[in-house]
Specification:
2 helices, globular, mainly beta
């Protein structure tokens, strides 16, 4: 591998100087305990999640100068264990004449041993209304570019962009063409999945490109087209095989779906194909797509408030996913005087249970455990708090059991009458007085509700999520609670709800339960803060 030249642009140098000057202004207790936040300023999509030279690398969409989205840079962390992370200087700034923003992309170890990154260069020029009132002289152009590095320094390819209008089929617009997922196939070729917007209906599609050398690319096929059932434009595609089954995950913009199995707004959906009958290396990726992916079944990846743009990586037989724990529509709602805004989900391992794509926190979390508490609780009609369970950094597991036969019913002429009690279980967490997050499960309807309307947020955003879990006398919940977020895993990760809690008091640590006749088995592990290496 050739050494990476030490060529740093003025824009990148300025960004690095700024982040170094302000990084130390953020005290450790002002950051999440075990989730990642930006060095300074704004964070969105995870980028370049990969394992290279004995370390995990995770980059992120980054604006060091503000807690709002603007001209995108790339921030950078590394880790030996997916728990403790070191901050590094910004890796990229929008410093080439073909880009005003360095948008999302992925990274792999290339054949020559270099760290190969493929990303989207966004070039946006606002209309000059002083010369053209129609605004037709505005420009938006997104192209795909590559860069190489040694894990520390990176240089963009002199021949960028490598995929532009020449390679993009005519039916798609260059204005929305982004977010490459890059990999090397079993045949030694380079493959990339991107998203693009169709001209005819303005809906998104996932496109497949191939190359012999990572520089000269050709379009192969369209993996999936949006027919209007899944929002409008798509973003941040990921394509991988899990247990022999191909999975295409997408971040969906402006979803309009009232089913409790999905959710409205900007959200994430995975299209899961059947298990490949032939090993992937024995047939072309295009054949696999034709036979499997176009009929793949959709499911939501996260039904909570804040989860978007996830990326996966494979290491030691595991597929691990990290997502941006924020809803794009909440992007302008950083708390007043915030020094940073945006955080990543805790890494999750993906697995199948039957046909269901499931998620659970990576097992490494156990290395953060301290002060374990095990309780058996018979819930009461009135709400009751438990001092042993208090905490703000914790991993809390609940096995919830309702009285037997509580779901039996008898028909009447007008309605179903449920025998036995109770109808619902209630948990409040991150509670202090009237501040809390409320989680309720209705055994009769099978609906699980998470309500953060009492979490003290100053912005008016979505505060209630309801999902269909199914009617059962048994339910398991696992709650990862941090200073500024929660992740709730239902029935060992069959469904997940994530949310941010930026303005709850630090003292909001109480946990309470309610539901006459309900039995709980509770395991609580307090968590140590992760170590964060300074810039």
């Amino acid at each position: 591998m050739k050494p990476i030249a030490d060529k740093i642009s003025k824009k990148l140098s300025l960004a690095r100087s700024f982040e170094k000057a302000h990084f130390s202004e953020i005290q450790r207790q002002e950051r999440p305990g075990f989730h990642l936040s930006p060095a300074i300023g704004w964070l969105n999509d995870p980028n370049g999640f990969s394992f290279y030279k004995g370390e995990y690398h995770l980059f992120y969409q980054y604006n060091p100068y503000s807690t709002r989205w603007d001209a995108m840079h790339w921030g950078h962390w590394t880790s030996k264990d997916l728990l403790h992370w070191d901050y590094h200087e910004a890796s990229f700034a929008p410093d080439e004449d073909y880009e005003t923003g360095v948008f999302s992309g992925t990274a792999i170890t290339d054949k020559d041993g270099s760290h190969l990154i493929m990303y989207t260069a966004d070039y946006t020029k606002a209309p000059d209304y002083s010369t053209d009132l129609s605004g037709k002289n505005g420009v938006r152009r997104e192209t795909q570019c590559i860069a190489r590095g040694d894990g520390s320094q990176y240089q963009k390819y002199e021949g960028n962009p490598v995929i532009s209008e020449k390679e993009l089929p005519e039916e798609f617009t260059i204005e929305d063409f982004r977010d490459p997922k890059l990999w090397i196939g079993k045949d030694g070729k380079y493959y990339a999945v991107t998203v693009a917007r169709k001209k005819r209906d303005n809906l998104g599609a996932a496109l497949l490109f191939a190359s012999e050398n990572a520089v000269e690319w050709q379009y192969l096929d369209t993996i999936r087209e949006n027919d209007g059932s899944f929002g409008g434009m798509w973003e941040c595609p990921d394509f991988f095989f899990l247990e022999g089954r191909p999975v295409l995950s997408l971040s969906v913009m402006n979803m309009k779906n009232t089913s409790p199995l999905f959710r409205n707004g900007n959200c994430t959906v995975a299209f899961v194909g059947e298990e490949a009958k032939i090993e992937p290396e024995q047939e072309s990726i295009v054949d696999l797509i034709e036979k499997i992916m176009k009929n793949a079944k959709p499911q939501a990846l996260d039904l909570g408030f804040d989860f978007y743009a996830p990326q996966t990586m494979e290491k030691d037989g595991r597929t691990i996913m990290v997502g941006w724990m924020q809803a794009p529509e909440a992007g302008g709602n950083a708390p007043e005087n915030a020094k940073w805004y945006g955080q990543m989900s805790f890494p999750r391992e993906l697995f199948f249970r039957g046909d269901r794509l499931c998620q659970r926190p990576i097992s490494e979390i156990q290395k953060l455990y301290k002060d374990r508490v095990d309780l058996e609780i018979s819930c009461e009609k009135e709400e009751k708090s438990y001092a042993e369970l208090e905490g703000k950094l914790l991993d809390l597991s609940l096995q919830i059991s309702a009285p037997k036969d509580c779901l039996k019913y008898q028909e009447s002429s007008e309605q179903k009458v449920v025998s036995g009690v109770p109808k619902a279980f209630q948990m409040k967490f991150a509670k202090q007085g009237e501040n809390y997050v409320l989680c309720t499960y209705d055994f009769v309807s099978g609906i699980l509700t998470v309500d953060r309307s009492h979490a003290g947020r100053s912005a008016s955003i979505c505060e209630v999520r309801r999902i269909y879990v199914g009617c059962s006398e048994e339910l398991s919940l696992r709650l990862l609670l941090d200073r500024f977020s929660f992740e709730l895993f239902v029935n060992d990760g069959e469904q997940v709800l994530s949310g941010t809690l930026y303005e709850l008091p630090a003292e909001a640590k109480e946990i309470s339960f309610q539901g006459e006749g309900i039995h709980l088995q509770v395991k609580k592990n307090s968590l140590k803060e992760i170590e964060l290496g300074a810039l």
